[in-house]
Every structure is written in C-alpha cells, then in structure tokens.
Amino acid sequence: MSAQSRGHTPGPLPRSAGLPPPAERGATIIPDKVVARIAAQAARTAQSRRAALPPDRSRTAAAPSADAAVRTGSVRLHLAMDLPYPTDIPHVCQRIQRDVAERVMRLTGLEVGEIILTVRRLVTTAGDNRGRVR
Known about the structure:
- The protein has 134 residues and is α+β, with helices and mostly antiparallel strands.
- It is 29% helix and 25% strand.
- A 3-stranded mixed sheet has the order 1-2-3.
- A hairpin with a 2-residue loop joins strand 1 (65-71) and strand 2.
- The termini are far apart.
C-alpha cells in the first residue's frame, strides 16, 4: 500500500544532512566563454534558418562568431556573421537576433540585454554564376 492510499499525503523531501537551504548555497556562474559558444551555435542555426545559408562550413560563408559579457543575471552579445547576397539585411538580422536571444535565454537562464550583430560580408550562394552585367 502506498502512503497516499493509506490516507497520508507525502510531505516535503527531507533535507540532505549538512547542506544549507538552496537559497543559501550560492549561485551558478556561467562563464562568458560558455555563453559565447552557446550564442555562436544558436547564430549558426539561425543563419541557416533565416538567411538560407547551409550550416556546413564547406561553403564560402564562414561560421558565425560570438563574444559575450555576463553581468549579474544578464548578458550582452556581439555576433559576427556572413549573410547571403541578395537578402533583406535588416529583416534577417532582426530575426537572427531574436532567435539567438531566445535560445541563449532558454539554455542559460540569462536575460539577453543587447545583441550587436555585425555582418562581416555578403556572399553569393553557390549556383549564382550570373557574371557581370555590361
């Protein structure tokens, strides 16, 4: 017979011997470098989704890079990436920033205060062999 079937409701779990309450144990600190790696991976995924660039590195587009500065529960990110030509740069950048912010927040619990996105260069997609117009 279980405790509930006998009329008992389960109480709080007993504290581990010798451990202070969770609020007094401290905080989890995620280093800037780890947050930057998470942001770079999120940017790579967003780049392939929003900018129609394949995530593989064999193409002419370089992988996105990221820097992070974590301060008291929030993070500032700087992303640098290539985008395809032609593209609607403001629209694509805004969507990539939103995707990266959501992913970083979901994986780290940190509020994303600011994302600066630098477009390193515009690349033509493979198969664009249009040449110059005279």
